[in-house]
Amino acid sequence: MDARIDPAAALGISLGDAHVIRNAGASAADALRSIVISQQLLGTQEVVLIKHTGCGMLTFTNDDARALVEKNLGGEAAREVEGLDFLPFPDLEEAVRRDVRFLRESKVISKEVVVSGWVYEVESGKVRQVV
């Protein structure tokens, strides 16, 4: 989701080479619907999950997010997000490993689909494999 990152430029891919699914924190659980559509309807054979350094998801908790909603939007809005998991994470590499494990263990992702996890280093522009 980070506007500082151009996936095509960062990964050296051309338009049409990949389905790019973006969301806050590069959450596999949040992207599952799109991944299933990409795989089942469009034939995707590989999932490359990439999180990045300096991610805002490292900076807050669910309680922090809910409190901010209440402060900025009021009690009614706060009640609406009461049970919502904003999917923050305190450890970048562990979050990559957890999301890759989630996808590999999912019954809706074919076992033939290759799933890997990476970290894009915003500071250097380099991508490194975690799993």
Automatic annotation (TrEMBL):
Which Enzyme Commission numbers does its entry carry?
4.2.1.1
Q: Does the keyword Lyase apply?
A: yes
The record's similarity note reads:
Belongs to the beta-class carbonic anhydrase family.
Give the residues the record marks as binding Zn(2+): 2, 52, 55
Q: Which InterPro entries match?
A: Carbonic_anhydrase, Carbonic_anhydrase_sf
Q: Which residues cross the membrane?
A: none
Instruction: Give the keywords, sorted.
Output: Lyase, Metal-binding, Zinc
User: GO MF terms on file?
Assistant: carbonate dehydratase activity; zinc ion binding
Cofactor details (free text)? Binds 1 zinc ion per subunit.
Instruction: Name the catalysed reactions.
Output: hydrogencarbonate + H(+) = CO2 + H2O
Gene3D superfamilies in UniProt: Carbonic anhydrase
Q: Which cofactor does it need?
A: Zn(2+)
Lineage runs: Eukaryota, Fungi, Dikarya, Ascomycota, Pezizomycotina
Species this protein is from: Microdochium trichocladiopsis
Q: What is this protein called?
A: Carbonic anhydrase
Per the UniProt entry, the signal peptide is none
Q: What does this protein do?
A: Reversible hydration of carbon dioxide.
Checking Pfam families in the record gives: Pro_CA
